[in-house]
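Example S7 (structure tokens).
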């Protein structure tokens, strides 16, 4: 079977070299993971392999490739190339396979695609899915749309329920989808507690881990079966690529891969290259996002016109004690509740100069968005009176971002 070209000077990884990489710190893994010599050749980055057709040496070679159907082997463009494989391997390495049992990562053209493929892989008609009530709106839409039409029931639960979720289990409960923190209201879920009771009942646990990524929260190590990341956000980091990923144990690997292949899911090598490039600087970017967001959150918390700041690192945020216990840090996305109605909130956002108005987050630019958590609740009720503004804190100077917020919040409405 065709193989990527190798430079004669390349050396295979020695066992000691691999051990050094496996045991390295997350910052080092972000830089080194997935850069196998057989894929990179003599260059630093894995080249972009643009190809739909992969050629074989002869008919027997082709037949052998069809029979094997393995991972990280040339076959056809939908199966990927070293460009995609190296990114997938790097994301797997970020889950610390030596302690979590992470087996592999699949890539998808968006975070939504990753979530939906994961659910389709583990559910069938007649099953019951439990979903945290703070979940991403497209996740709720998929549950109440296509899954419902397939005869799969979704029941929503309080994200702060912890081990008491066991009381919601029934004979048909097959999976639990969590989002922690919720990307609008930022409750932190006690994931280890939920995973512990789920395992007793052979229920599969899935986590949308986009906010923290495996850098701040190694999901599989905490008990999650399938870790989902909208790589569009912090992995890509430059607001120019859509991508999602699923990382899982060997137990669920073939099931996920089979569903993804049957639905023709593939990411382009160019997008994979850009995502890999973003990953290499993610640790540095996340630290800046974290520091600036914390400074701005504390500044907002002191203002008289702010009712509450919903940032997991602040004691006022639901689930803060769990965040402090389990998470290694916080990212750049949080919300605050302004005293006043939605017109007041919109007035503030409209008068910002350094914050764009738009969906998504995780990029280098700051964003502000008026959000409506009361519209996306089933098991719980949103009790706050004020309007909710969500901020994505980018890489601009933090003092400039605070000054911009101050002038917008101090500007009187006409």
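Recovered sequence:
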């Amino acid at each position: 079977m065709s193989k990527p070209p190798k430079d004669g000077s390349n050396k295979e990884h020695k066992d000691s070299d691999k051990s050094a990489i496996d045991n390295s710190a997350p910052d080092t893994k972000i830089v080194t993971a997935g850069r196998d010599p057989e894929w990179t050749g003599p260059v630093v980055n894995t080249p972009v392999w643009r190809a739909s057709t992969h050629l074989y040496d002869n008919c027997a070679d082709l037949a052998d490739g069809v029979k094997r159907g393995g991972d990280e082997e040339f076959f056809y463009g939908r199966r990927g190339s070293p460009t995609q494989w190296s990114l997938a391997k790097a994301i797997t390495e970020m889950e610390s396979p030596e302690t979590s049992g992470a087996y592999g990562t699949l890539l998808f053209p968006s975070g939504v695609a990753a979530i939906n493929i994961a659910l389709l892989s583990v559910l069938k008609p007649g099953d019951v899915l439990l979903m945290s009530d703070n979940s991403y709106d497209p996740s709720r839409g998929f549950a109440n749309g296509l899954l419902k039409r397939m005869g799969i029931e979704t029941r929503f639960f309080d994200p702060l329920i912890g081990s008491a979720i066991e009381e919601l289990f029934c004979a048909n409960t097959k999976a639990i989808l969590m989002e922690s923190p919720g990307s609008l209201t930022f409750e932190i879920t006690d994931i280890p507690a939920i995973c512990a009771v789920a395992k007793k009942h052979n229920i599969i646990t899935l986590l949308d881990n986009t906010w923290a990524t495996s850098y701040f929260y190694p999901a599989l190590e905490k008990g999650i079966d399938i870790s989902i990341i909208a790589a569009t956000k912090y992995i890509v980091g430059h607001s120019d690529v859509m991508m999602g990923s699923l990382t899982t144990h060997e137990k669920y690997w073939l099931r996920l891969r089979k569903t993804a292949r049957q639905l023709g899911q593939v990411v382009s090598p160019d997008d994979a290259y850009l995502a890999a490039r973003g990953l290499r600087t993610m640790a540095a970017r996340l630290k800046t996002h974290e520091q600036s967001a914390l400074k701005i959150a504390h500044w907002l918390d002191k203002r008289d016109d702010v009712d509450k700041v919903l940032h997991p690192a602040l004691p006022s945020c639901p689930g803060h004690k769990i965040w402090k216990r389990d998470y290694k840090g916080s990212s750049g996305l949080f919300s605050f509740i302004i005293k006043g109605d939605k017109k007041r909130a919109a007035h503030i956002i409209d008068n910002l100069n350094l914050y764009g108005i738009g969906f998504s987050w995780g990029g280098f630019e700051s964003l502000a968005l008026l959000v409506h958590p009361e519209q996306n609740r089933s098991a719980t009720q949103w009790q706050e009176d004020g309007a909710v503004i969500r901020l994505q804190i980018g890489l601009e100077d933090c003092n400039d971002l605070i000054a911009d917020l101050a002038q917008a919040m101090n500007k009187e409405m006409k």
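Notes on this example. The radius of gyration is 22 Å.
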